[in-house]
Amino acid sequence: MRDGGRLAAAIDVLTEMETRHKPARLALKAWGDSARYAGSKDRAFVSGLVLDALRKRRSLAWRMGEESWRGVVLAAVRFAWNWPAERLAAAAAEPHGPGALTDIEQTRLETPIGLDDAPPPVRGDYPDWLAPHMARALGEAAAAEGAALAERGPVDVRVNTLKTDPDRALKALEPLGAEPVGDLPTALRLLAPAAAERSPPLEALPEFAKGWFEVQDLGSQIAAAAAGDIAHKQVLDLCAGGGGKTLALAAAMANTGQLFAYDADGRRLAETGMRAQRAGVRNLQIRSPLRPNALAGLEGRMDLVFVDAPCTGSGVWRRHPDAKWRLSPAQLERRMAEQDAVLDSAAGFVKPGGRLVYVTCSLFLEENEDRIAAFLTRAADFTQPAPPRRLTPRTARTDGFFIATLQR
Known about the structure:
The chain has 408 residues and is of the alpha/beta class. It has helices spanning 3-19, 24-34, 40-55, 57-64, 69-80, 85-92, 103-110, 120-124, 131-138, 142-149, 166-173, 206-209, 218-225, 244-253, 266-279, 322-326, 329-347, 369-378, 393-396; strands spanning 155-159, 179-180, 187-190, 213-215, 234-237, 258-262, 284-287, 302-308, 350-360, 389-391, 401-407. The strands form 2 sheets. Strands 7-6-5-8-9-11-10 form a 7-stranded mixed sheet, sandwiched between helices. Strands 2-3-1-4 form a 4-stranded antiparallel sheet, with helices on one face. Helix 3 (40-55) packs across helix 5 (69-80), helix 4 crosses helix 5 and helix 17 crosses helix 18 (369-378). It is globular, with a radius of gyration of 23 Å. The model has no long low-confidence stretch (mean pLDDT 95).
């Protein structure tokens, strides 16, 4: 495919996504299934452009003076990808391109409007209705934090100490440019790929198949590390999902004690079992919600209950940028109710003296501090011995996370 066809494809995918209310992932898959002529480089280009257009939708539309996906895509390759105006004009006019630039488009692309006078949701690339939530959580830094969430994220790796050590894993990942990151010795980072390129081929390394490492954002690794010293303990991962934090907890336990994994969506646990086998985990019991009373017998016995709560996902907009445009006030309210319910459920499994770690990948106080405060009014036998921790791309170079530790 030539540049013009790739631009037109990105516009079509974004239009399909919005018209049919599809997640970006499904809209890209539908395009890929229909575009048999597209090679791997074409698919990487279109996918990268779609995601970057979604990341910076508001600021790009502001520069163009209009909100069509055509305008956003043209602005993305001009300002986010730094294409010369001449290259963009030539690509747009190609036979399979989106059509020649108008005079207004040409002017906007050659002499862009700055963002200094734009309101915070435009500078931060988030919907207007989220402005009070962002401001309440992040204050005057809301726009800057939003802008950081509109950048592409790096690829982080957690070294699996059940199979290897950080030095050996780093050597295995040297061909991909991995480097240590943060304060965790088991955390390595690969720079984000160029916009039109695919992610590094981690899965192609033989050490990946051996279970030496897992792809996991540094923030997620820090959240799992908040469990502390859990060797020889009884641990329940109550919202295990696909198992990323479950495997980190298992490594911290060094196959001692007992780790239980549960999720209300039993389909997600299938991946947890397969990943645990590859990682060499031997102390894991998966409790499926498909079985009645799946967690019977665990009440009041756990040294630690880890709650990776369902949330809006505002902290991972770098990786799922369409989520911020699909989010609604009603969804936020539902997540808050689910968080209250899962905290109340988790409390019953914590033994006296045990701990409850509450984690979200959200920035909003409504899902974080407010939920903890409300829980503590309902659960008088729990305390919060230390302040919670908030991670953001701007301040911690991670995805956005909230981490609170409670004790019974």
